[in-house]
Amino acid sequence: MSVNWALPFEEKIFPKDKSNLIDVKTYIELHRKTVDNFKEFWARVAKELPWFKLWDQVLDDSNPPFYRWFKGAEINASYVCLDKHISTWRKNKIAFIWEGEPVDAKGMPKEIKKYTYHDLYKEVNRISYMLKTKFNLKKGDTVGIYLPMIIELPMFMLALARLGVIFTMVFAGFSSDSLASRLEDANAKMLITADGFWRNGKIVQLKNIADEALNKVSNVKDVIVLKRLGSNVTMKNGRDYNFDDLMNDIPANVYVEPVRVRSEEPLYILYTSGTTGKPKGQVQGVGGYLVLLHATMKWAFDIRDEDVYWCTADIGWVTGHSYTVFGPLMEGATIMMYEGALTYPDPSRWSAIIERYGINILYTSPTAIRGFMKFPKEIFKKYDMSSVRLMQSVGEPINPEAFRWMYDVVGRNEIHFGSTWWMTETGGLLSGHFPGLYTVPMKPGTNGMPLFGADLEVVDENGNPQVPEQRGYLVIRKPWPGLSLTIWGDPDRFIQVYFSKFKHYYFWTGDYAVRDRDGYFWILGRADEVIKVAGHRLGTYELESALIQHPAVAEAAVVGVPDEIKGEVPVAFVTLKQGYTANEKLANELNNWIREKVGPIATLKNVLFVSKLPKTRSAKIMRRVVQAVAVNKPIGDITTLEDETSIEEVKKAYLEFQAELAKRSDPKNSN
Ligand code: WT7
Predict the structure, then answer these.
(1) Domain contains 538
(2) Residue 647 within a domain
(3) CATH number at residue 600
């Protein structure tokens, strides 16, 4: 979403808790020192982790951009998250509070479960044991996870990590095609999935979707099926195993020694969208990742033992990996995990959850907040949310209205509430307000300051620092722990996508940013053609290639247009093959097609038919031009455009669509 950065906020807010407040100048000076000595700085942080073996070298930067942190060190994520705690008083502390979506007649949740660190430790050991003895899984294997928000999801992540098995989680809202391509790319030998789950009061039959995907791939040999719904699903003999049957004969007290994983070896692969090509498998190395999570859990979330912490993201996205599972577990936190929609069965479900468990720290997204804002404040304010002492937002720029609304309704206009910038590739957050360390006064809408030890900068086209108040590109000049190791199976693409825009091996984030005259960072949105729908990243390419697989479609250009709640939504402009007629029926059919091929998050706001699309002379579709028309902005330089009448075509289609919308929302036309 492009935000007009000159407008939103000017005020600075001084939260009630001023204990760690410092002025911007001092912050910048301290920050500079950490960046100048970034290796020593991160080594100092890393010493706080329980390594099996310390590193020989803090950072191997001999082969940029393939940076290897804490080379020679050995660690295990499952050990850091579990074993470390169970030898202390935290053994009987609650690790997860889990609440299922369904409610009874009184609106109360039907299922609430609590798991202590010891419970989790025992279950994870049992699952590890089962995977090791029955499937012979070992270090370096890859396994796919396609699970909803059930407690076995973090258990499996930890059990696989315990064995050094690399997992790749696919968000349960993705389609069978998306699942299949990821399983295939990662060469997963096993898939862990479930019969189905509850979402918004409806049942999603996950196993059916998984089966469709499995029909398309040959590398997956074994499938473990969890019964969330207890329903009968078709099981393929010799391939599918019922989780409960597999666990039946596993003793309660088995112990699996955590495999010693080298710091620079992978923990997981997580696929993200870009502008071109299929989704990229980001490979996250274990050691650096855990160091970054440890630092940011303390600095951005100020996590303390007495807290109940809730990150509302689905674990299928990176936010959930880092800040629902690994980050809070390694800090020994009590974590809220909720299965379903935040606004089911009524809009205030999330407020009820905050009240029920006395949530202290809340990590959520602008899209979620804008969804709540449709309803009167009173329905939320009747819940006691005074336990919340710190909030952070993530995923997209936060607009002033959403900030103010949430700050009032939950924040009592007095707590810390910042916006943390990061991306899948960075492993953890790198910019924000850091109340657990030193924080500058809150400037809402901004992304605060770069994290200590992270060399973020706004640069111009040539990679030189941009003047304050001028828009530039957000880059990261030095490696940081948490940086993706590579793109799975495609190291050249890793260089090309992230390290080739600027000569000096700066990491290219793809975001526009501004540093304001006070020194605060504003991340303005994507400079490339990535669309952020409800904070989720969608590549225009993925949507277009799905569309052109439809027999009626000749060409397609997908662009993002602003949306009141989701921030941005995709609109498709398509040209048809001969013999097909443009009509509403076909538009709906194409939309269903996209939902099937990619998933419901890719639902198009509209399909607009045109007779031609603007293209360069080298026949590349000029998405930038289409986008400008769709958001009614100046079209800019069109010297490379082959046929100018194509713009008129796109404009006409868009105007007709607007007129149609106006007609539909006019009460005179409803019957
Ligand atoms: C893109 C990365 C990282 C967790 C979720 C998204 C945008 C993320 C912010 C923020 C403005 C933000 C950027 C970034 N973004 N957080 N606080 N303010 N923009 O991860 O799916 O990899 O997306 O999300 O555009 O490049 P992701």
Answers:
(1) yes
(2) yes
(3) 3.30.300.30
Distance CA 310, CA 312 (A): 6
Question: Residue 564 Cα, ligand 1 centroid: separation in angstroms?
Answer: 18
**CA angle 337–92–159, rounded 5-degree value:** 55
Number of domains the chain contains: 1
CB of residue 420 inside a 6 A radius of ligand 1:
yes
Tell me how far apart the alpha carbons of residues 243 and 131 are, in angstroms, rounded to a whole number.
11
Residue 65 zone, left/alpha/beta (φ > 0; ψ -120 to 50; rest):
alpha
- Pocket probe for ligand 1: among 275, 394, 531, 566, the residue whose CB has the most ligand atoms within 8 Å is 394
320 CB under 6 A from ligand 1?
no
Tens of pLDDT, residues 355-375? 999 999 999 999 999 999 999
Q: Amino acid identity, residue 205? A: Q
Q: Give the distance, in angstroms, between the CA of residue 485 and the centroid of all CA atoms in the same chain.
A: 18
Which of 523, 526, 536, 538 is the pocket-test mutation for ligand 1 (most atoms within 8 Å of CB)? Answer: 523
- Residue 640, domain extent: 534-660
| Local structure of 529: helix, strand or coil | coil
Task: Pick the atom of ligand 1 nearest to 429's CA.
Answer: 3
Mean pLDDT for all residues in the chain: 93
The Cα–Cα gap between 301 and 328 comes to 10
Residue 394 CB less than 6 A away from ligand 1? yes
CA proximity to 142, closest of 489, 623, 517? 489
- In which residue are the tokens 């959403």 written? 402
Is 635 contained in some domain? yes
pLDDT in tens, 288-329: 999 999 999 999 999 999 999 999 999 999 999 999 999 999
From 392, 396, 568, mutation site for ligand 1 pocket: most ligand atoms within 8 A of C-beta = 396
Beta carbons within 8 Å of 661's beta carbon, 6+ residues apart:
none
| CB within 8 Å of 598: residues ≥ 6 apart | 174, 175, 177, 178, 538, 542, 543, 546
- Mind listing the pLDDT tens digit for each residue in 531-586? 999 989 888 888 988 998 999 998 899 999 999 999 999 999 999 999 999 999 99
HEC states along 249-311? CCCCCCCCCCCCEECCCEEEEEEECCCCCCCEEEEEEHHHHHHHHHHHHHHCCCCCCCCEEEE
Give the strand pairing for 416-419 and 390-393.
parallel
Distance CA(629)–CA(641), nearest Å, equals: 14
Q: Whose CA is nearest to atom 23 of ligand 1?
A: 423
3-state secondary structure of 140: coil
- Ligand 1 midpoint to CA 531 (Å): 11
8 A C-beta contact, residue 211 and residue 180: no
Q: From ligand 1's centre to the CA of 27, what distance in Å?
A: 23
Whether residue 103 is contained in a domain is answered as: no
Q: Is 396 in the pocket of ligand 1 (CB under 6 A)?
A: yes
Q: Is the pTM of this model over 0.85?
A: yes
* pLDDT tens readout for residues 125-157: 999 999 999 999 999 999 999 999 999 999 999
Kindly indicate the confidence band of residue 438, based on its pLDDT and cuts at 50, 70 and 90: very high
Cα–Cα distance, 242 to 261 (Å, whole number): 29
Distance, CA of 82 to CA of 256 (rounded, Å): 12
What band does 411 get if pLDDT is binned at 50, 70 and 90?
Answer: very high
